[in-house]
Amino acid sequence: MRLFALLAELQPLLAGAEHELLWLAAHYLNLSKSEVQTRRDYAVSPAQEQQLREAVARRRAGEPLQYITGLQPFWDFDLIVTPDVLIPRWDSETVIEQALTLLPKGEALAVCDVCTGSGAYALALKYERPEVSMTACDISEAALDVARQNAAKYNLNISCRRGDLLDALPPGAKFDLIVSNPPYIRQDAILPADVRREPPLALFGGADGLDFYRRLTAEAGAYLTPGGHLLLEIGADQKAAVSGLLRAGGFTNVISGQDLAGCDRWVQGAWEEA
User: Which residue among 13, 59, 138, 178 has its CA within the 20 to 30 Å range from the CA of 269?
Assistant: First the structure.
């Protein structure tokens, strides 16, 4: 079957989301998006046609594109993603940019990514600062398996540890930076259909969305070097609450930042105790 005919048949099934059809076609036909648009006489094999039809059906049923293709662009990577992990979003890259300001080049610092999921934070920071010692933690062994796959894909040395937040770390472990994108959605939040397909374990942070921030801000100081930082991704309406939790937990120099859309996206605090 010719590509132009197949796309013409499938396009009404994803009406209003033609860009998603281009994404799926590029993935299953092993073409670039521009090639999908220009190589209209491309001969689609029966196997490719079946794969694309099945993918469109899955998308129509509400499954996220990233779980269909198994990939999500993030930083300089095409990360492996599965239904066991949260899909990394572009706005999280703002947190990476802030973390890099806390990690001078050439210094062999220790960094811990808590609630690592696909390993997005850990991989980006290790890629940009190869001299750091990187630990990635998650309560889900299935998520850690995805993080390990991504680390192997990009040949990045990351130590993965399973456990409930900081309980994953050995006693006495110390880090110069702890960074986390914990579950922060309120339990009663109304979510889009595709977001509801993501793992609840990675989404929900209790009745007010702050359960994991309470624990991290109370416990992280024991794992930070003097002058170390705790850097947290937040929901757009959580800056005041999480900043207050950091101060109550003994952190100083509490600051926040926004993503490119102008939404509050991260809060950090410094740990000064010896």
Answer: 138
CB 81 within 8 A of CB 146: yes
Residue with tokens 């374990």: 201
Fold of 71-271: Rossmann fold (3.40.50)
3-61: CATH topology: Helicase, Ruva Protein; domain 3 (1.10.8)
pTM across the whole model: 0.92
Indicate if 71-271 has the same CATH topology as 3-61.
no
Say what percent of the chain tops pLDDT 70.
100
